[in-house]
Amino acid sequence: MDWGLAILAILGGLAAGSINTLAGNGSAITLYILTELAGLPGAVANGTNRLGILGQGVITSRIFKQSGQLKIKQAWPIAAAMLPGALLGVYVALHISNEEFKLVFRWLLVALFFIILVRPSRWLKNIDPEQIKLKWWHIPICCCLGFYGGFIQMGMGVFFLALLVLIIKYDIMSANAIKTFSVLCYTIFVFSIFWYWGKINWYWGGLLLIGQMLGGYLTTRFAVKNDNAAKIAHRVLVVVVLIALIRSFQLHQYVLRFFY
Length: 260
Hints:
This protein is mainly α. The protein has helices at residues 3-22, 27-37, 42-67, 72-93, 99-117, 138-151, 156-167, 172-196, 202-225, 229-248, 252-259. The chain has one domain (3-259).
């Protein structure tokens, strides 16, 4: 056992759990650990990554519900709409490469980054979740997002928040609670499929699970007790998307060349 890598995996899981709770794209960290440090094949890394997401989802959903942030009657129709797409997405993930999908992911990030920066007040509004009504056309969008989550998961939380806040009109903290619950629901099925096909590495998955559950627990406890949680979540979201853009387009290479 390499204790250095084990500790790094736990710390990476902790960071991912915290980021996933307030924004999304924590899987960019965990998938990097699984593919580059652990050396797992793509499909195994994809499946193993779901273990930490599952554990984190259980603990954060519980805290959001206890605090009153998560209203199950608002969340379950969204979760149900995402499930068929997620099941199709995991089927595709088991049969084709992720590389083609990552190209689409890059340009979606570009659009989302500008959407987040324009009129940030849209992300900071305080709305009673009881007043929100789903429209019929929200359902196919949720299904498409479910497909994306089942396929690769990375960046799922970011796009899901954009849907919940900008289109369905939830406030950002209620959206985070619904996001956490919905991702947990479909991850149960997605993880089971990866497990059935032998695509789980329990050692690396267990290390990430420890970190992600701890990160999710600490961050959720902080978020439900902090009056400025919405502002913090929005700032984290901006930083997460910016870092993802730099990494996806490898812009850091140009910065380094400028200085060196």
